[in-house]
């Protein structure tokens, strides 16, 4: 399973990369706007740091605009993946871009039916939004499981990115399903490390080691 960071914050990305467990990054207009950085410059900086797939989203909603933006963004780095919203124009743009060898990530996916269309268009990645489904009292994990099953049925090559991840159990459940990738906020990545028994265990080992050293002096 690959782990992508769902952020445009350079400090967070640096930390994750230093830990050696980050394979890529996903951004969206909201995450970019939080940083207040120049869009293309920030995408380049992220690519240079992570040296893996970095999703950058188009903001045009029409086919021509999406394709134009995608071609420009793809010039930034070999690592750029074009994030395209799940609409008829978006799917048409994905088909065009995949024929040109430009990698795409179909975003804002909320149903297995939409995920089928993304795969049919030749998307490199599809991003079902788990947390936002849960927010509406729908079962995000069930949607994810159905997409995994459908993709396995047909051997679709589009990789599934479990997105809109809110807590560690989303990550674990996605991994149990064999999802290709989870994209997670930095705060959730930090929480993956945590277990109170680990903290307690370290505390006890340190106390006992201190006692051992004191006994040696006697
Ligand atoms: O990047 C797309 C997705 O992961 C957004 O998540 O938390 O805004 O629903 P969220």
Describe this structure in words.
This protein has 218 residues and is α/β, with parallel strands linked by helices. The chain is 56% helix and 17% strand. It has helices at residues 10-19, 29-35, 39-50, 63-74, 88-99, 112-120, 130-135, 140-154, 168-176, 186-193, 196-217; strands spanning 2-6, 24-26, 54-57, 80-85, 104-109, 125-128, 159-162, 181-184. Strands 1-2-3-4-5-6-7-8 form an 8-stranded parallel barrel, surrounded by 8 helices. Strand 3, helix 4 and strand 4 form a beta-alpha-beta unit. Helix 4 (63-74) packs across helix 5. The longest helix is centred in the last third of the chain and has 22 residues, at 196-217. It is globular. Residues 6, 26, 28, 129, 131-132, 163-164, 183 line the site of SN-glycerol-3-phosphate. SN-glycerol-3-phosphate binds at residues 6, 26, 28, 129, 131-132, 163-164, 183.
Sum up the structure in keywords.
single chain; 11 helices; binds SN-glycerol-3-phosphate; eight-stranded parallel β-barrel; 218 residues; alpha/beta
Write the layout of secondary structure elements.
Blueprint (H helix, E strand, L loop, with lengths): L1 E5 L3 H10 L4 E3 L2 H7 L3 H12 L3 E4 L5 H12 L5 E6 L2 H12 L4 E6 L2 H9 L4 E4 L1 H6 L4 H15 L4 E4 L5 H9 L4 E4 L1 H8 L2 H22 L1
Parallel strand pairs: 1-2, 1-8, 2-3, 3-4, 4-5, 5-6, 6-7, 7-8
Helix pairs in contact: 1-3, 4-5, 6-8
Bound molecules: SN-glycerol-3-phosphate.
SN-glycerol-3-phosphate binds next to helix 7.
């Amino acid at each position: 399973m690959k782990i992508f960071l769902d952020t445009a914050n350079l400090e967070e990305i640096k930390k994750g990369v230093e830990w050696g467990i980050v394979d890529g990054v996903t951004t969206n207009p909201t995450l970019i706007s939080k940083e207040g950085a120049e869009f293309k410059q920030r995408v380049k900086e992220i690519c240079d740091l992570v040296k893996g797939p970095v999703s950058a989203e188009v903001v045009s909603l029409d086919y021509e605009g999406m394709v134009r933006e995608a071609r420009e963004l793809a010039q930034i780095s070999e690592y750029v993946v074009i994030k395209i919203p799940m609409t008829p124009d978006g799917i048409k743009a994905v088909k065009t871009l995949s024929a040109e060898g430009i990698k795409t990530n179909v975003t804002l996916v909320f149903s297995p039916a939409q995920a089928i269309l993304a795969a049919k268009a030749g998307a490199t990645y599809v991003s079902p939004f788990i947390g936002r489904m849960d927010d509406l009292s729908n079962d995000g994990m069930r949607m994810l499981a159905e997409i995994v099953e459908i993709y396995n049925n047909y051997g679709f090559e589009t990789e599934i990115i479990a997105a809109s991840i809110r807590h560690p159990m989303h990550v674990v459940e996605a991994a149990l399903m064999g999802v290709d990738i989870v994209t997670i906020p930095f705060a959730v990545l930090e929480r993956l490390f945590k277990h109170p028994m680990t903290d307690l265990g370290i505390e006890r080992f340190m106390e006992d080691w201190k006692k051992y050293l004191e006994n040696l002096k006697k």
